[in-house]
Amino acid sequence: MSVYTPVNRLQLEQFFSTYSLGKVTGFEGIKDGIENTNYFVTTTQGRFVLTLFESLAADDLPPFMDLMTHLGRSEIACPCPLPDRQANPLHSLNGKPAALFNCLAGAAVASPSIANCRQIGLQLARLHCATQDYAFPIKNRRGLDWCRSVSAEIGPSLCPADRALIDDELRIQFQNSTDLLPRGVIHADLFRDNVLFIDGRLSGLLDFYSACTDTLLLDIAITANDWCCDNGIVNPEKIMALLSAYETLRPLEPQERRHWPLMLRAAALRFWLSRLHHRLHPRSGEITQQKDPLVFRHILEQHRRLASVISLRPAAWPSCFRPAVDTRRRTDSDDLECGTDCTASS
Question: How many CB atoms lie within 10 A of CB 255?
């Protein structure tokens, strides 16, 4: 991820002296992402990834280390924490909690194909199935309450149109409870830059530090909003490819299908707000990366305009993907307000 905490050669050599992984021969900062500091480190025994945690404290990290270890044992390709000679996976480096991981082969895809979308849908279902009975103690720190809090914080810096759109979407989301939807461990940040491919084959999932226990459908929506949009334009065919692959392992329940369009909107709102917050309150660093908030504003507007992208499915799709009975009602703002059985609003 972006380099916020610089590390020099001597510090790395001292850090690696507690491992049995050879001598350091080279290192470089990883520029992708925005949360943690990451380096590729090459030694006489191989290539590794060093992570310095910028937001999470040392006491917060064991559940994430345990989760990645569990996923590795479940044959989910992901970075696994490497223990030192004393079997400790966590250390401190330059004043930050730090851990070392195996380096997965492959590269991210900038423009996912239909086949890529199928693979990520299938892999996401594998992750959800592998953690079906896994007790993960971390709650979603960036749910609707967080969205409302961030909106209040950055609202004075936004234009009136943005504030009105955010306020209206928050109003609708809070009126539509997700409490009865299936829950479990979710990645919560499965964007293109967190997935590796080799020759068109998915080879690894990265960055599990946003993982939490929440609605499984939210994880699918977050993933679809990034993988199934072409330059910010929603691609229904890609969404259907992702969903159909996902359902080969975990079919969606009827209430999930009904809530799907609203969940796409909730996911878009969450990342629009987080990118706005990063833009307005940037952190200093050597290689920082700012992502465009307008991408998710545009995606949110598309989801609000469409009754349901799933309604554009081929005729062969199951009837359960047809829009539910229209129980919407017109509000004073000329928006469409939904009950929990509505497929979408506006």
Answer: 15
Choose among 249, 246, 226: nearest CA to 296.
226
| pLDDT above 50 (res 263) | yes
Sign of the Cα torsion 289, 295, 297, 300 reads: negative
Angle at alpha carbon of residue 275, lines to 270 and 281, rounded to 5°: 125
Residues 36-72: pLDDT tens digits? 899 999 999 999 999 999 989 999 999 999 999 999 9
Distance CA 336, CA 86 (A): 60
CB 12, CB 27: distance < 8 Å:
yes
Q: What is the DSSP letter of 133?
A: T
**Nearest 10 degrees: CA dihedral of 238, 120, 225, 152?**
170
Q: How far apart are CA 52 and CA 93, in angstroms?
A: 7
Residue type for position 294: L
- Give the whole-angstrom CA distance, residue 48 versus residue 41: 5
- 109 and 200 in contact (C-beta within 8 Å)? no
Question: Where do we find the tokens 């966590």?
Answer: 90
The alpha-carbon radius of gyration of the chain (Å, integer) is 21
Cα separation of 119 and 124, whole Å? 9
Q: Which two tokens mark 175? A: 């009126």
Q: b/e string for 62-85 if b means 16 or more Cβ within 10 A?
A: eebbebbebbeeeebbbbbbebbe
**At how many degrees (to 10) do helices 236-247 and 216-227 cross?**
140
pLDDT tens-place string over residues 117-160: 999 999 999 999 999 999 999 999 999 999 999 999 999 999 99
- C-alpha separations of 182 from 197, 203, 242, 260, 338 in Å: 29, 27, 19, 13, 20
- Token duo for residue 267: 């996911």
The whole-angstrom separation of Cα 113 and Cα 109 is 9
Residue that the structure tokens 């799907």 belong to: 260
| Size of the chain, expressed as the number of residues it contains | 346
